[in-house]
Amino acid sequence: MKVRSTTVCAVIHNGKVAIGADGQATMGNTVAKNNVKKIRSLRNGTIVTGFAGSTADAFTLLERFEEKLNTYGGNMKRGAIELAKDWRTDRYLRKLEAMMIVADKEEVLIISGTGDVLEPENGVATIGSGSNYALASALSLKKHAEHLTAEEMVRESLTVAADICIYTNHNFVIQTVE
């Protein structure tokens, strides 16, 4: 049975970064859990990650990413690139079904199993089943509601996704990096 879950959204706005995710995990057509925590802080809160996909796979990737951060002195981009290389070439990692968003106070990156490390040029990154809804909302908010904070933009974008996507709920965890 395929496990579907989540929307993760990160926004850079006015010098602050916020990342958030809903808490739903779904197995087939049944909600398996409503309060999964898909946001994690690393390196004393200076780097925040969010994941979508299989929880066990995401935790494996999170551990590997943390190892890469330690190896490369906390350099988030270098750690992300090295993780993506391993993820694409390692026989075990290649089978993992998850994606990650990683963020520090200056940038947001999307890491995928195809070897991609994407840095969105507009300061908005989304992954998961409701990602397109959250992306459209966040881009619109950045353009037309500049008075909002990054955290408010993430919350509203996740709300839009949860209102539309059946694999996303309203139980949000949001963290900021300043």
* Helix content estimate: 25-40%
General shape: globular
Q: Number of helical runs?
A: 4
The overall pLDDT average reads 90
Give a quick account of the main beta sheet: strands, pairing sense, barrel closure. 5 strands, antiparallel
- Please state the structural category: alpha+beta
Distance between the termini: 40 Å
Biggest sheet: strands side by side, in what order? 6-7-8-9-10
Strand content: 25-35%
User: Secondary-structure element order, as H and E?
Assistant: EEEEEEEHHEEEEHHE
What's the Cα radius of gyration? 15 Å
What does this structure look like?
The protein is of the alpha+beta class and 178 residues long. Helix 1 packs across helix 2 (76-89) and helix 3 (131-144) packs across helix 4 (150-164). 34% of the residues lie in helices and 31% in strands. A 5-stranded antiparallel beta sheet has the order 6-7-8-9-10. It has 4 helices and 12 strands, in the order E-E-E-E-E-E-E-H-H-E-E-E-E-H-H-E. The chain is globular, with a radius of gyration of 15 Å. The longest helix has 17 residues, at 55-71. The termini are far apart. It has helices at residues 55-71, 76-89, 131-144, 150-164; strands spanning 3-4, 7-13, 16-21, 25-27, 30-33, 39-42, 47-53, 98-103, 108-111, 117-118, 124-128, 173-177. Protease subunit of a proteasome-like degradation complex believed to be a general protein degrading machinery. It is found in: Cytoplasm. The active site is at 6. It catalyses: ATP-dependent cleavage of peptide bonds with broad specificity.
